[in-house]
Amino acid sequence: QVQLVESGGGTAQAGGSLRLSCVVSGGTFDKNAMGWFRRAPGSKREFVASISFSGHSFIYADSVKGRFTISRDNTQNTVFLQMNNLRPGDTGTYYCAGRSGIAPSDLSVNYDAWGQGTQVTVSS
Q: Residue 39 forms beta bridges with which residues?
């Protein structure tokens, strides 16, 4: 059974940075595209970023382009989300997700496995 465990959430001031990690176990990590989604209080879950199985292709939500960077280390079965220049609007629970396909995707229905989430709070 595939397990995804996020870490790295916390509180930051606007303009600050956080780095999220997601360790994957029980699956074929290096054959799966991965993604990050988030849910703000009172809002629906939204796409943040996705990376191909190889780490060479990416998709970003417009709201995070130029500020967030997704990456992966297939030797460590880990995917990262580096978040810079954080804004209060980035506050929410961040979820790591994995999909059977090799290409990145911004659609949550394309993902098969999800982590429990890690909280990110950005204060102004």
A: 45, 93
